[in-house]
């Protein structure tokens, strides 16, 4: 089957390789159509229609219900008449009650948030399906062995700026790392750095507010290949969900894929067969995070046992190939 995946630049840069490879494993051809928000919405719709015709596309998967700056939703009846359109919501539908009739154009809808599924049924009479963003092939194709060197004790990567929850938890983790001489590294978007003086000023202000976290944080974004390497080098990979999300994010599955240990804040598992102390472990607050960091640094055998079990369930069940198989069936 020839499939078109409609996405934005950010998701394309991060996930295209894994989407293409996972779909290839299903025997499908994948074409990535990247939306350009600087263009007129009518021109972008026309470009997609021409893309569909030119590549004999049979199905289009939209990775989010895209809206342009003029507040118009991208999908319309003209596109739906050309091809079977399906939606996979990656960023959550924040206000289901404000959706227009366009939402009925999609033949199937999936979301990483169970609340979206509930709200779509309640307000739109639409039967949607809960489907997390599982790990792509890159993240589970080279399982870590217990003999591999782990030179980092604690690692986190993600957008930090603007998330009070992440900042507070990471400051607490950095404090315990400093007090116990653990090696910790935090990477992500932290402050603006478009100019050299913004980098200096941003780092200075951040250090005043978060004295421990500032010692271990770097204002840096990695490629997926680099992220995979850091996961494998780390004894405890932290996961901290952003405010507003209630179900487990993609990092949950990506960390575990290669037998890496995951310590995550507690989210709604819904029907996921993930067990704490078996596949990964969780914390409910700052105190529990600190205590579990100290515990798992000292208990290597238990940590590796959980990590191996987590990797097995990702490779067998919770991976991107199985997700796409469900969507395209």
Automatic annotation (TrEMBL):
Spore protein YkvP/CgeB glycosyl transferase-like domain: residues covered: 169-322
EC id: 2.4.-.-
Any one GO MF annotation of this record: glycosyltransferase activity
Record key words, sorted: Glycosyltransferase, Transferase
Protein name: Glycosyltransferase
